[in-house]
Every structure is written in C-alpha cells, then in structure tokens.
DNA sequence: CTGAAAGCGCTTACAG
DNA sequence: CTGAAAGCGCTTACAG
C-alpha cells in the first residue's frame, strides 16, 4: 500500500519533510505542507501506526481491563472510555477478565507485558502487586476506576458514603426495620464495592442507634436482577416480622427485589420501600429511588487522566488519587415512602 | 526493554536463530531452542508485536465494529468474540459506532484505514459499499455478524423465521388477536433486524388467514425495556378490543410489555400471552417464552471464521455465507398459554 | 525550512 | 541447523 515514500515522491520532497508536514511536528513551509497534504490525500495515504510506534515508543493505544462487558455499569464505563479515546485519536484494546477466570494471567503475563498499549485502565478490578509490576517495568501508567492497585492512580465514587446516604434516606422517612441485600462477597471482602456498600449501610444503622444487624437483615446475592430476585424472595417470604424497607446493593438488585415483592403481593412503597445504588438507565421506568453515579462520564474522565499520565512521562506529578470521590446524587422516585403506621 | 538482541547474546546465538527458536518457525536444534527459551525467560523477553507486524504484515489484532456495548445481545457477542480472540493470541480493538453518530466516518476513514487490524468483525451494522472498499483495498477481510455488507462474509440467524416461529406458537395455542411490538424502523427498513422480524410476524399471520394487520396491531418502539413498556402501555391501554397475545421484537421489549401489563392489571398469561425473541439471560426469571439465539456462541464462531479468512490470504475460497442460518430455538415458559375463552 | 542517514525491533530470504 | 544482511515504514537528530 501507499507508504510515506510515495507521498514524498509525488510531492517532490524527502520522506523526512513529508513526515514533518503530515505530523505537524517540526517546521515546514506552508506551501510545502499543502503540497504534501494534497499528495497524501490523492493516494489515500495514512501513516502506519505500527511503524510510527516503533520509533516513537508510543502506540496511541490504551488497554482496558474489565471484568464484565455485559453489566450495565461496566458497559456504560466502556462506552464512555471508547468515545473519549476515539476522540483523542487513540485505539482501545479490550481485555475482558472475568473474576475467577483463567484469562487473567494470560492477559497480564502476555498481552499486557508486550508493548502494545501506552497505558492501562482497569475498571472495577483490584490488581495484585505483581500485575502492576509488569506494567511499571514497561513504564505503562495504570489507572484504576473503582478498584485498587498498589501505587496506581485511582478514580472512584465513595461507595460507603453512597450506601450510607441511601440508608439515611430510609431512616429519615421513618423506617427502622431496614434490610440490606448485599452483593456477594460483601462480608468477606470489606474493601470490595459490595463490602464498602455493606459498611455504609451498617454505619448509617449504627448512627441511628439501630441494631447493627444480626445476620438476619443482611443477605448476599449476585449483583444482578435475578440475583436480587432470588435473595429478596427469601428475605421477604419468611414468615414473621418483615422489613419495611430494603437497601439494595445495586439498581439491578433493586429491580429484582421489586419483582420479588410483586410476586409476593407486597405493595411498593405501601408495604415496602426499596432503594438502589447506581442510576441504572431503567431506574426511571421502575420508579426506583436510587443514589446515582455516572459511569459513562467516569469513563470519559478516566481517559482524560490516563492521557495526562501518558503525556507527563517520568515527571513526578502528583497522582490524581488525591482528588475527591466522583460525584453521586440521591434521586427520589416512587419506590420509597414513609412506612405505613 | 529487553529486545531480541539481548536474548540472542545471552543464548550465544544470532538474532535470526533466536527469532526462529521463539516463534517456532524454521528449523532450530532442540538444544538451541531450549537455550534461547531459557534466556528469554530469564530476562522476561516478549517480542514487540509492532516490530513483528511491520515485517510480517500481520498485526494479530482484529477490529470489532459494534453499535452498542451496553445492550444484552451486543454485550454477549462482544464477550464471545473477546474470549475467542484472546484464546487465539489475538488482540481486540473496539470501535463502538452508535447509529447516527459522527464516530462512524472517523472510524472507517481513519482508524480502520490504517493497518492496525488484520480483519474486521462488524456486529449488527450494515456497511456501505465505500466502507467495505476501504478495507478491501487493504486486503482486510470483513465478516458481518447480523448485518450485511456488499461482498462480505456473513453470519446470522434467520430473523424472519424466528419471528414467524414465535407467532406460530401463539397461533397454535389458539390466539387470533395477536399484536406485534416491532423495533423502530421495522416498516421503513425491511432488511433490518426489526424489519425482518416484522415480516416474519406478517408471514405467519397471513398464512393463518388472519388480516395481515391494519396498522393497529403493529406498533414500533425502541428495542429496550423502557421502549417496550411505553409501546405496550399504548397498545394495551386503548379502550376497545384488546389483543390476547403480543409478539415482542426482542426479549427486552417483552420485559417492558410484561411490566406494562402488570401496571394495567392485565394478567399474564390469563388475559395476555407474551413471547419474545433472543433468549436474554433474564428471560427465565420473567418466565418469558422466547425464541432463543446464542450470541456468545455467535461471537466465538465469528472469530473462527474471521481467523480462517485471514489465514487463507487471497485464495478464492467459498465464503462462509453459504452456510445455514445460525441456530435458534423456541423455549416455552409461563408467559404464554391458550387464550381464555 | 529541508534532506540524507540512522535506527526503532523484529523476520525472512539467501548462503553456507 | 545457523548467521549476516536486508528491509518492513516510519521519525528524529544532525547538518546545512
């Protein structure tokens, strides 16, 4: 295909000048630049990124490590990242690393260990020391969105505060028998997203002087709609005193809880208030009160930061970790109300 | 970082031999190979893919053009593609090209026009002649999954047959007043997915001798849960004779229809049967009867085919287009039953 | 402002 | 089976 030599020949200049004219780096006379640009357009020349990477050491490619594609939050983040990257002229190389899968080692030890990306955005995963080390050695910045990695920059909402706010909303309405449908692993991994949210729930309950909860009012489930459905069915179907409100670990879990309530003939919000966390695009349709976060915007922001990290090279700039948590907002809809007396 | 020269020096061989030993191409004495491998492992050497691409002309990278990431079908396909690609040692470069967006031109004219990918998998989009031409000129195979492109290989279910089967299920149960919640653009674009499904509905109705439908029994909506909800609210809320069954264009639309029925106090399946198409992971929870397809498996298959296309080079092999449509299956659950007499 | 030359890190004929 | 050399397509000092 057309190479830069062809453009140079056609424009009657050297390859060096053609390169400078096209990249905009270095001084080139205006008339020369136009001539080169015309020649390039004529033969449909576009520089080979691989050849350029080889000499510049920059690939203009960012790797994204993400545990799920097909879950609302992650899908939104991914779309936000993609849009921002394309806008900046960068490619996005996708590494889907499901929890507990065997793909993970291969991705870190082989794919990411090569020099195919300039940086990595890790979404919702915690990286081990040795995983970061591989990238550090290659001088590849790592940015964590949500998860954590030793020594890496990090962007995240305050999950604990979000769950606390959700719980306080219910307390403020007058609820006292409040249950929490937590994400799986919440109790076992206190620093995971489900763990932090569970803590926020407990914080708020404790501050209100309410029993910080025997196990009875916290159940765990997969953070999906069917997960929430199954868990809520158990929680709400038990004979005996029922909670008057549920803090769901995520909006999807809340949707499942809503459906379980309906199946059991429990009126929402008359007999049961339900609040979620996330700001899922379906929340409005379900009338779900929730603490919103903005994953697409988070993805966009992650790209902004990572591009800065790439640009700064080795400058010991302050990490953006110091920044405040990402924004979050309580949106009240029809799934929560005062408890029926 | 470690380059192949370092490995060669450490192993006491030439770069050529080191390259051959590591790539497994060309003959190398077993003892030499082991020595080279040990040396590579010792200094953590991994070949730079960019340098290799430059000489081989292969990037071991496949581009995926996809209109949405965050919609169940597309997310599943993407995960399937990613898994298969990683398994084969290929990278996946993601190009999210939402319908009507301005990203599309940039992706085809710039990103895909470079030589960064060996092939392109286009999921659920129809490509214009000039879009394929760009890739053809660079000898990049294109595989369409779902959509179409002039001259490109194609993999797809038979959407028309799927909708026809869904409708026949209802007819077989004894329904005659059957409505269709179609996807937007169904009437305007007969060859789009919603268009084909609408046709399948009409085929079945006509074959049963039922009025092929004044506009009254077909409504269009976005192919999402809120879209289906809004459309079904209109459809079912009208005073007058109500349909006894609905063929939803997709499972998500069916979920929305279910929710609309519930809101209107219409019992499913007592007063209304609902069937979807897709086999969404939530279908079981909703008790939704549906015609399943298998997007993750489709993604896997797409990779298999595209890798074959890459390997064959310029051989005029038969395109896999000739193949049968991808598999599909009717799964009956609790959302459909005989109409109440 | 422009050009000749070197070199980024590989792989692949071509000899031996 | 192995090595020396050329070359993939760029960019970037270095001169001028």
In short:
The structure is a homodimer of 341-residue chains. Chain A is of the alpha/beta class and 341 residues long.
Biggest sheet of chain A, strands in spatial order? 7-6-8-9-10-11
What is the chain-wise order of helices and strands of chain A? HHHHEHEHEHEEHEHEHEHEHEHE
Radius of gyration of chain A: 25 Å
The major sheet of chain A is characterized as: 6 strands, mixed
What do we call the CATH homologous superfamily of the largest domain in chain A? Answer: Response regulator
* Assembly of the depicted chains: homodimer
Architecture of the largest domain in chain A in CATH?
A: 3-Layer(aba) Sandwich
- The total number of structural domains of chain A is 3
* Class by alpha and beta content of chain A: alpha/beta
Separation, N- and C-terminal Cα atoms of chain A: 77 Å
Number of strands of chain A: 11
Please work out how many helical segments of chain A DSSP would assign.
13
Q: Pair with the most extensive interface? A: A-B, 52 and 52 residues
Rounded mean pLDDT of chain A is 93
Could you tell me the CATH topology label of the largest domain in chain A: Rossmann fold
Query: What sort of overall outline of chain A do the alpha carbons produce when their principal axes are compared?
Result: elongated
